[in-house]
Amino acid sequence: MSKHFSLETEPASWHGTVVHPKTPAELAGIVERAFDYRGDVTLKLKTGESLVGYVYNRQPHSPCPYLDIMLASTPDRRRVPYHQITAIIFSGEDMAFGRSWEAWQRKKQEETQKIYRPKT
Amino acid sequence: MAVPLSQMATVARYVLTKKLKGETRYPLVLMLEPLFRCNLACAGCGKIQYPEHILDRRLTPEQCWAAAEECGAPIVSIPGGEPLIHPEMPEIVRGLVARKKYVYLCTNGLLLERKIHEYTPSKYLTFSIHMDGLREEHDLAVCREGVYDIAVRAIRTALARGFRVTTNTTVFNGANPQRLREFFDEMMQLGVEGMMISPGYSYEKAPDQHGFLTRHRTQELFARLLANRKRSWRFNQSPLFLEFLMGKRDYQCTPWGNPTYNIFGWQRPCYLLQDGYAETFRELMEETNWDRYGTGRNPKCADCMVHCGYEASAVEETFSSWSGFTGTVRATLFPT
Ligand code: SF4
Ligand code: SF4
């Protein structure tokens, strides 16, 4: 499920992307994408732990940059320092993807055409 | 029925007290989001695209009341998601009313007829019904047919039971001013207390990035929409904010005027933009770098003219200067 990752190119959706950041800048960049992502991510930590949840906050400019994640399997939330993260996987469905106004309009148009298609 | 004098007096007293104390940043309306789950999935809505476990979470009544007390704003607006889905919403509202907060419960109306008996009419409680235009436009905006008719029935029911009722309308790109003017007629004929309008905002995360308005087009559209306003139309909004929408006034955003609290915490910097969260209201007010936000300061704010950023700026002008005050009186009595 791993997709090629580059901070220069923004995919239509990050879903399925696996990133092992190599530099602090790359890590900060990918945390920013995880924060923007409308789905769950999996964080792999140096401790060997895996956290699955929704990243709702991040503080890249704090003396010890961290993110906040709401865990998917319990009501808990966790604060994770950036330096603890070894990989970020965009594992959950991207809930914003494909739910566009255009898609809705296309669907409506298709429905209308089905109903009103003139007989030939 | 118009906004009760007691509400106007409460807001005026609150703002003047803040000004006398020399506070330059103060909240006017708490935007309280007790849940994100909704029973609609409008194409322009950036509030509902979350994983299931996030949509399943809700603020408790105690969290809602604590947020209202911590923030101290005289008005609490409860958007969502759809607040009426929250099983403890009647209790939340009762607690806020007991604290003498003027509550605007924003709903798409789908559940209102079924749940209205759980609420008690009060000058402190207003149902603010989401209506994005006449039947055709509204049903298209909310991506489901039949919603307009249900919402109209809900408005009638709430009014018949003695509730305060307003409408809230998001004006999107391509809106037809003439149709919207007919919509205003129709809402006023239904007997609502007033209407609230605001341009759509291009959420970073909203799936519909084309339906929103640029600043210049917003001004053009609202100038046409609100020119030669009918005497019968009542807007439950600052008249100076309406002039701002029409391009007659210029304001900078004051996002702290409408702070947002939800399951994640206190949202930075505003109801629309999610740039992170603070754990307390004080942290939000004191540790947010407010200078980073607003038109000309942040690309994400470039085209924004929404009420939750700029209406508090208009209210601030009313109470800041004699010209602001007389301008408000003039714009109320002789809207153009
Ligand atoms: S009714 Fe409101 S919260 Fe629900 S999807 Fe529509 S805009 Fe979003
Ligand atoms: S201009 Fe103000 S209300 Fe609009 S997005 Fe920016 S901070 Fe939020």
Task: Provide an overview of this structure.
Chain A has 120 residues and is α+β, with helices and mostly antiparallel strands. Chain A has two helices and six strands; from the N terminus they run βαβββββα. Chain A has one domain: Roll (SH3 type barrels), CATH 2.30.30.100. The radius of gyration of chain A is 19 Å and the shape is globular. With 336 residues, chain B is α/β, with parallel strands linked by helices. Chain B has one domain: TIM Barrel. In chain B, 39% of the residues lie in helices and 14% in strands. Chain B has 13 helices and nine strands. Chain B has a nine-stranded mixed sheet, sandwiched between helices. In chain B, β2, α4 and β3 form a beta-alpha-beta unit. Chain B is globular, with a radius of gyration of 18 Å. Chain B starts with a helix and ends with a helix. Classes of the chains: A alpha+beta (120), B alpha/beta (336). Chains A and B meet through β3 and α2 of A and loops of B. The complex binds iron/sulfur cluster (2 copies). The site of one iron/sulfur cluster has 13 residues of chain B, from loops. One iron/sulfur cluster binds next to loops of chain B.
Task: Please sum up the structure shown.
Chain A is of the alpha+beta class and about 120 residues long. Chain A is built from two helices and six strands, in the order E-H-E-E-E-E-E-H. Chain A has helices at about 25-35, 100-115; strands spanning about 20, 40-45, 50-60, 65-70, 75-80, 85-90.
Which oligomeric form is depicted? Answer: heterodimer
N-to-C span of chain B: 22 Å
**What molecules are bound to this protein?**
iron/sulfur cluster
Summing up helix and strand content along with how strands pair, one would put the structural category of chain A as alpha+beta
